[in-house]
Structure to design on (397 residues):
């Protein structure tokens, strides 16, 4: 009988990395700290190189694979998922605008007094200029994705699917495994420079606020779905709790699909509708993830005295909604897909990007749980629309 090998998830690794970074900062000599700062500098440059490729490799195939699915039901499902994601982003923005100054006042002030440029510097760095800007990558991805929906040949399509698989390999086997070391180096540097206490105090308060926002978001989603489907929203939400709890443990929308599907059917959604909507929404509906990204970005921007006005964040949220469709189904995938926009549109430097990644992943399971539970609300709406308006057979082909 072989022993089952224990595999630690990304979240425990990140939490351990944060704790060890703070602990080791108490006694590591400066020369040792600078070794990890050097690694972080190289890793940050590598991320800058790979992000445009990641956007093309994930968004372009996502667009033409959706485009292959003819039928009104597919278009309606995608539209509702995108609209839900946008509403979640704006809900997060306005909630943060109201709550952060009231509940994070001291933390924001203390963090704002910190020089995030860093007093310690790497021994050397390796420049890796990206092949194109994030905006160019987005436009290129849309041109390729939309173009392939009209092209009959399979050569470019197969190449893009292989390129997508390559990007998945880079994320799963290079970026995600190295993230804990990257975050360790960030907190090691902050601890050595005396920045940890202010940042950790802010982190804990933000986590509480975001968890409350997730609960409110789910209630709103099911109230709307319940009104459309004429069902008790709280009973429907309660029925989806097994999916929520499963996602908390797996941290993966894809891995939770069987449970989400079963609970959606228990909510009265026809099996053929649920079998179509749930797998699709596991990929394109990331309302919980966009809520977290906006809330984390707003907190860091506000604390550093950066622009947090609606005109900036409205564009950021709309673009982020598109990026979320391409978020890969691995833990932390959403933040990696979004980091390019965070850097270019919000102006986050590598240290601030590292804080974003650490703060996001610390709550990764909450966002995933909100995503999959909200899929059940969309299924209720689609089930009602299909029953009343669309007589044709459900199909994604």
């Amino acid at each position: 009988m072989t022993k089952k090998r224990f595999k630690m998830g990304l979240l425990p690794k990140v939490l351990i990395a944060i704790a060890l970074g703070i602990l080791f900062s108490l006694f590591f000599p400066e020369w040792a700290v600078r070794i990890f700062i050097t690694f972080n500098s190289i890793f940050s440059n590598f991320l800058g190189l790979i992000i445009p490729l990641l956007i093309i490799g994930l968004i372009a195939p996502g667009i033409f694979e959706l485009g292959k699915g003819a039928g009104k039901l597919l278009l309606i499902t995608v539209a509702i998922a995108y609209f839900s994601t946008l509403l979640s982003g704006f809900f997060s923005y306005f909630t943060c605008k109201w709550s952060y100054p009231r509940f994070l006042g001291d933390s924001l002030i203390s963090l704002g007094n910190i020089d995030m440029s860093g007093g310690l510097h790497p021994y050397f760095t390796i420049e890796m200029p990206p092949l194109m800007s994030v905006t160019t990558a987005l436009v290129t991805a849309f041109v390729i994705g939309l173009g392939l929906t009209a092209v009959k040949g399979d050569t470019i399509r197969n190449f893009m699917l292989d390129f997508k698989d390559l990007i998945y390999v880079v994320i799963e086997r290079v970026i995600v495994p190295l993230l804990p070391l990257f975050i360790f180096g960030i907190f090691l540097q902050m601890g050595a420079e005396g920045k940890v206490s202010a940042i950790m105090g802010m982190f804990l308060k933000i986590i509480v606020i975001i968890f409350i926002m997730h609960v409110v978001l789910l209630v709103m989603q099911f109230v709307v779905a319940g009104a459309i489907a004429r069902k008790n929203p709280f009973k429907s939400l309660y029925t989806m709790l097994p999916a929520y709890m499963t996602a908390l443990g797996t941290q993966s929308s894809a891995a939770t699909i069987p449970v989400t599907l079963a609970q959606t059917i228990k909510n009265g959604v026809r099996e053929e509708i649920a079998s179509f909507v749930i797998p699709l929404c596991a990929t394109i509906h990331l309302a919980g993830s966009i809520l977290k990204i906006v809330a984390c970005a707003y907190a860091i921007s506000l604390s550093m005295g950066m622009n947090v006005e609606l005109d900036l964040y409205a564009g950021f949220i709309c673009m982020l909604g598109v990026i979320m469709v391409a978020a890969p189904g691995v833990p932390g995938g959403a933040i990696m897909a979004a980091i390019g926009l965070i850097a270019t549109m919000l102006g986050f430097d590598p240290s601030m990007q590292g804080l974003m990644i650490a703060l996001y992943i610390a709550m990764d399971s909450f966002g995933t749980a909100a995503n999959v539970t909200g899929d059940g609300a969309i299924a209720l709406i689609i089930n009602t629309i299909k029953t009343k308006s669309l007589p044709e057979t459900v199909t994604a082909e």
About this structure: Residues 10-389 form a domain with the Proton glutamate symport protein fold (CATH 1.10.3860). The chain has 16 helices and no strands.
